[in-house]
Structures are given as structure tokens and as C-alpha cells.
């Protein structure tokens, strides 16, 4: 898989948050609150996707904002690629 360009990573990350939030709501988990900052929502979506086994977990020492953002962007890119 090619490396994701920073601009593309930002777009993929936003799409991953949208899709992750929709999936969590379909499962009965409401994790989106407009008052929460984006890093908190990203971590909640990441943890949800790991819990439902749609995403492999990061090592505990690498579970931080940039790594979660990158992992979600890669997950979204794989979903887009598999849909085509």
C-alpha cells in the first residue's frame, strides 16, 4: 500500500470518524457529542473499532493522537479500496 499524503490523510481521517460514528450508533453506542474535542472522538471511535474487531489495536505505548489518526486513515483507505 502506498503511503498516504498528509492532505489525503486528513480527508480519510474525517471520513473514518464519520463512518465510525455511524457504525457505533448502529450498534447502539452514541459516542458523538458536539462539545467533545476531535481527539477525544477519534480515540472513542478507535476504541470502538478495536472492540468490534474491525481494526487491529496499536501497541499501548503508541496509542496517541497522531498514531490513532494515521491508523483510522489507513482503515478508511482500505475500506474505500475494497469497495471499488
UniProtKB/TrEMBL annotation:
InterPro entries: DUF5062 (IPR032036), DUF5062_sf (IPR038316)
Protein name stated in the entry: DUF5062 family protein
Superkingdom: Bacteria
Amino acid at each position: 500500500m502506498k503511503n498516504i499524503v498528509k492532505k489525503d490523510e486528513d480527508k480519510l481521517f474525517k471520513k473514518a470518524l464519520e463512518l465510525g460514528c455511524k457504525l457505533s450508533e448502529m450498534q447502539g453506542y452514541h459516542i458523538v457529542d458536539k462539545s467533545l474535542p476531535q481527539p477525544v472522538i477519534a480515540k472513542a471511535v478507535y476504541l470502538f473499532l478495536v472492540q468490534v474487531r474491525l481494526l487491529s489495536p496499536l501497541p499501548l505505548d503508541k496509542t496517541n493522537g497522531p498514531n490513532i489518526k494515521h491508523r483510522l486513515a489507513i482503515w478508511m483507505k482500505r475500506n474505500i479500496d475494497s469497495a471499488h
